[in-house]
Write a structure and sequence with these properties.
Strand 1 and strand 2 form a beta hairpin. The protein is α/β, with parallel strands linked by helices. It starts with a strand and ends with a helix. Helix 4 crosses helix 5 and helix 5 crosses helix 6.
Length: 269
């Protein structure tokens, strides 16, 4: 995988998928994964997207093949967003379609609000409300992974993440996949980014936005999701059947096809 240097000793790995006709100039889609994931989380989306678009899949700093972060690393939304901007600058991409799942959807809502000149459309899949949980919940979440491990947390929470219809083998794959994250990265990330308040950012999103959720998502009801989605002009909500909250993983084909229809209605050029 290609790599860019974010700072001395900190590298960001990424993958580019492009199976478009070589005489065309395809637009770019940037796919940003969630907590304890990597570029691999989008495996089901790439066959749909890469025939028509230039698809960029980074491993967020600290995750996947990117450099693990120290426990006391000062995480902020702007740090993560700036990493992605450095990547797109490196690739020579000025404007792009931005897609995020789970906490990636939280980061990307702030991304779109704070850098409107770069984000042409925004798609948010299976992502929590703009503000979530209290200080006690946050502390318990960090304590769980530090004392019992990421695999324990992933196994405990995977039922609501992937829902009741996902195959058993797939559930186990996702548990082991998420458990690869360095503990130092996850503890610091969960304590900060994972509970970000982006209430003010949502009100400042001006690009077209697509939101995808499920009927019985454990992150929020359809009504709760619609409440923040409707704050954004030129936005739309798609509700899928099911009880998973990680729709990007459980319904990749439907989500990718829905995204394709959306971005085709909003071309950059």
């Amino acid at each position: 995988m290609p790599t860019i240097s974010l700072s001395p000793g900190v590298d960001l790995h990424y993958r580019v998928d492009d199976f478009t006709d070589p005489w065309t100039r395809p637009e770019t889609i940037l796919l940003c994964h969630g907590n304890n994931e990597s570029h691999q989380a989008w495996y089901g989306w790439v066959p749909h997207l890469a025939r028509h678009y230039h698809v960029v899949r980074p491993d967020m700093r600290g995750f996947g093949a990117s450099t693990p972060m120290a426990r006391d690393f000062p995480w902020t939304l702007d740090v993560v967003i700036d990493d992605y901007l450095k990547l797109m600058d490196h690739l020579g991409v000025e404007r792009f379609h931005l897609v995020g799942a789970k906490i990636g959807g939280v980061i990307n809502r702030a991304f779109a609000a704070r850098h409107p000149q770069r984000v042409h459309t925004l798609t948010v899949v299976g992502s929590p409300p703009p503000i979530r949980a209290d200080a006690a919940t946050r502390a318990a979440r960090v304590r769980e992974v530090e004392e019992q491990g990421i695999e324990h947390w992933a196994r405990r929470s995977m039922g609501s993440r992937l829902g009741s219809r996902f195959p058993r083998e797939g559930v186990e794959w996702w548990i082991q996949y998420m458990a690869r994250t360095a503990m130092s990265t996850e503890a610091g990330f969960a304590e900060t980014i994972n509970f970000s308040d982006i209430t003010a950012d949502v009100k400042n999103i001006r690009c077209p936005m697509l939101v995808i959720t499920t009927e019985e998502s454990g992150l929020a009801s359809v009504a709760q999701t619609r409440a923040w989605q409707e704050q954004v002009p030129h936005s739309e909500l798609v509700v899928l059947a099911g009880d998973s909250f990680h729709a990007a993983a459980t319904d990749p084909d439907t989500c990718a096809q829905t995204l394709l229809q959306f971005v085709r209605r909003h071309p950059i050029t």
